[in-house]
Amino acid sequence: MLKQECEEKTVAYLGPRGTYSEEVAYQIHTGNQVLFTAYSSIDAAIMSVVNGVSDECVVPVENSLEGSVTITLDTLALVENLFIIRESTHAIRHNLLVNPQNGPVEVIVSHSQALAQCRSYLQEHYPSAQVKAVQSTAEAACCVASGMPNHAAIGSLRAAKLYELDVAAAGIQDNSYNSTRFLVLGRKPAVLQKEPHKTSIVCQIDGKKPGSLCEILQEFARRNVNLTRIESRPARTQMGAYIFFLDLDGSLADYEVFAAVKAVQEKSIWFKSFGSYPVVDTSQPNGERL
């Protein structure tokens, strides 16, 4: 895909039209001159930024019910010169979308995370239905709109409108507090403002040395730097080797944060910083900043 000649910022997202990623991308860039481009997968959207086709991308990274979106984490760990420039948390409200011409519902399609977030509803109301995962909630809506017999989709109200589907049931997620964190990624670090920030890093430590993870965590504790998240993923080098993603309150402009991150870097076999970035939570009333 070639980057179109234009003056607008180009923003990639997980498509097709009607995904929650698109909805978040539009909200983040309300009032801005932006050219939005849909990609068929999360890693494709990220790589469009890495390869210079897009200026930014909006991708999901974690859901409050089902945990991390591992393809986002794994792709972030693999690529170079990519920074997190914003985090935005949004409430997710799933809906059962149908095409009356398709007949009774026997197959329900959606993104794997959406299906998991509606597991109890599906077991109660459609225990005999086949559940199939596709690349996105919008792709599921598109499949149902195309007339696939006996199919229904789980997706957003925007997807229902775009693909002219009926909402058979609204708000079917198993938890009313269902929300997803989205990251905005770019090739340059965020410009630090006078507002709350997070900082994110990923590192690999010597797993054969007893207490090596404890030593890393103590670098933050002794400087009173709050870790908000720690998660391990396979390093993909050998069995039993792991990398650790760490999110912490504050920015690298803060001395204690900078010192802690520097100490972790010196104790790591491999290290990468995604920079510091502002955090917005629109799942809260009035989109409060955290």
Could you characterize the architecture of this molecule?
- This protein folds into three domains: 9-91 and 179-188, D-Maltodextrin-Binding Protein, domain 2; 95-170, D-Maltodextrin-Binding Protein, domain 2, CATH 3.40.190; 189-285, Alpha-Beta Plaits.
- The longest helix has 13 residues, at 255-267.
- Strands 1, 2, 3, 4, 5, 11, 12, 13, 14 and 15 form a ten-stranded mixed β-sheet that branches. A five-stranded mixed β-sheet has the order 8-7-9-6-10.
- A hairpin with a 7-residue loop joins strand 13 (227-234) and strand 14.
- It has helices at residues 20-28, 42-50, 70-78, 112-117, 119-125, 137-145, 157-162, 212-221, 255-267; strands spanning 9-14, 34-39, 56-63, 67-68, 83-91, 95-98, 107-111, 130-134, 151-155, 166-170, 179-186, 197-204, 227-234, 242-249, 270-281.
- It is an alpha/beta fold.
- It contains nine helices and 15 strands.
- The two termini are 37 Å apart.
- The radius of gyration is 20 Å and the shape is globular.
- It is 27% helix and 34% strand.
- This is Prephenate dehydratase.
- InterPro entries: ACT-like_dom_sf, ACT_dom, Chor_mutase/pphenate_deHydtase, Preph_deHydtase, Preph_deHydtase_CS.
- Residues 10-187 form the Prephenate dehydratase domain.
